[in-house]
Amino acid sequence: MRLSVIGCGYVGLVTGACLAEAGHEVVCTDIDRERIASAHKAGRISYTADAGDAIRAGDAIFICVGTPPKDSGEADLSAIDNVARQIAAEAKTPKLVVEKSTVPARTGLELSRALSAYSKNSGVKHRVASNPEFLREGTAVFDFFHPDRIVVGVEDPSAAAELREIYRPILEKTFRCPVHNGTCPPGHKAEFLVTTINSAELIKHASNSFLALKISYANVIADLCEKIGANVEEVTHAMGLDARIGGQFLKAGLGYGGFCFPKDVQAFIHLSSKVGVDFDILKATERVNKQRIDRFFEKIHQALWVVKGKRVAVLGLAFKANTDDIRFAPALEVVKRLLEEGAFVQATDPEGTPRTKALFPQAQYHEDPYQALQDADAALVCTEWEVFRKLDWDRAGKLMARKLVIDGRNLYTPQAMREKGFEYYSFGRE
Ligand code: UDX
Fold it and tell me: Cα of 120 to ligand 1 centre, how many Å?
């Protein structure tokens, strides 16, 4: 099928590239000409700065533009409205307009109404569908080709049939997998779910918010374990063995960050209150998440006593491993507070340094973690990078001014670190 992708950000680039890999002709466009220039590649996928060209090229148009939060927490939908106007102006034939951006419920129906209004003169009737993505940063291509489910929210069955056709290579595994070099491990079959548009939009928010809730739940359990003298990993491991709970997203620590969970939880709380539903447990999820930093600083103050004038190594800046993304990263709040308290910050991250440097030029940045640990009075682990998990702490201990590690991601075992002579603190473990 001929497909168009509008918006070449994180979701649009991955969606366009993977649908081309799956065998479709794809034209991508973005208002950011530089982004288009850097994305050019041969074959089934092409990039154009001319939105009109892209709109006319596809039978189905995937809208992947950003929906950033407004100050109120509500999602800003103006980019989607702009695309609707462009489609109405440029498309002379009916299109299937597929909303892939994360949007609050009822956006699809609003989009459908807007498209009819904007296309009144041309009389062209476009159809709208919602197709939420569940891609994680760092594993997006894997997630696209190996989804647990493909959700399509539609107003009419023909739209569902077309989307099933678009995803047929993934559903029937007839694509050549770029992750597994053509031979995916057996098992795992994605489910194709057809719902209403409102349900599809809600599924996205409900899923992300529930994952965030799970993390905050594990973090409160960690606080309890510290008070009671239990081990959060023993507790969450046992919880996770119950198939009704599941072991994923129960890792206690500094809390969740990134551009999805914080924004989606806020948007969901906002949407709920707008329709008179008080989503208390999500407010608690957000509050618990924000308090992780306070918990972390309680440990820092307990161990370091006075922070002012201390040399502190910060291991990890990105919101999680395997990405350069620092948006809403807990580490940023840690660096900010350390600097406010007068510490000398020596930070390191395999990918997140350039963007952090722009925010906190007064900190020091090192590519080599051992340089960041040089003469440090303490080391704070903020992101679960493999390179930090594999650090040689015997070597690091000789470089540091004090063998003190405060582990915000429970990367190491307390016993192993203490046997190496470290003062070691983490979340939910003694
Ligand atoms: C998330 C969703 O997983 C994905 O389905 C959706 O499409 C976009 O948002 P992403 O933001 O890339 O993906 O990050 P994810 O891997 O989900 O991690 C989110 C945050 O939670 C990270 O800061 C991570 O460190 C933290 N986390 C994750 C925990 O603190 N504990 C856990 O057990 C898991």
Answer: 42
If you average pLDDT over residues 156-182, what whole number do you get? 92
Residue nearest to atom 21 of ligand 1 (CA): 256
pLDDT level of residue 11 (50, 70, 90 thresholds): confident
Strand extents, DSSP E, 119-201: 127-130, 149-154, 191-195
Q: What are phi and psi of 378, to 5 degrees?
A: -160, 155
What distance in angstroms lies between residue 137's CA and the mean position of ligand 1's atoms?
Answer: 8
**Structure-block tokens of residue 115:** 């498209």
Per-residue pLDDT, 39? 63
Least confident piece of the model among 109-123, 238-252, 282-296: 109-123
Residue 181 is predicted with a pLDDT of: 82
Ligand 1: residue whose CA is nearest its atom 17 = 136
Q: Which two tokens stand for residue 377?
A: 């009075």
Catalytic sites, residue numbers:
260
pTM of the full structure: 0.93
Q: Which residues pair with 28 in a beta bridge?
A: 5, 47
Which of 88, 83, 80 lies closest to 120, judged by CA?
88
Distance 215 CA to ligand 1 centre (A): 9
pLDDT at 1: 81
Q: Which of 100, 216, 260 to mutate to test the pocket of ligand 1 (most atoms within 8 A of CB)?
A: 260
φ/ψ of residue 92, rounded to 5 = -95, -10
Structural contact between residues 249 and 215, judged by C-beta atoms closer than 8 angstroms:
yes
The confidence band for 151, taking pLDDT boundaries of 50, 70 and 90, is: very high
Ligand 1 atom at minimal distance to the Cα of residue 264: 9
With left for phi above 0 and alpha for psi between -120 and 50, is residue 198 left, alpha or beta? Answer: alpha
Cα of 421 vs centre of ligand 1, distance in Å, is 33
Q: How far apart are CA 290 and CA 387, in angstroms?
A: 26
d(CA 346, CA 378): 10
- The rounded Å distance from CA 261 to ligand 1 centre is 7
Question: What span, in angstroms and rounded, lies between the C-alpha atoms of 205 and 203?
Answer: 6
Among 256, 266, 286, 324, the mutation site with the greatest number of ligand 1 atoms within 8 A of its Cβ is: 256
Q: Where are the beta strands (DSSP E) in 50-104?
A: 60-63, 96-99
In this structure, the strands spanning 149-154 and 127-130 are: antiparallel
Ligand 1 surroundings by CB, under 6 angstroms = 133-137, 208, 211, 215, 249-251, 253, 255-258, 260-261, 319-320
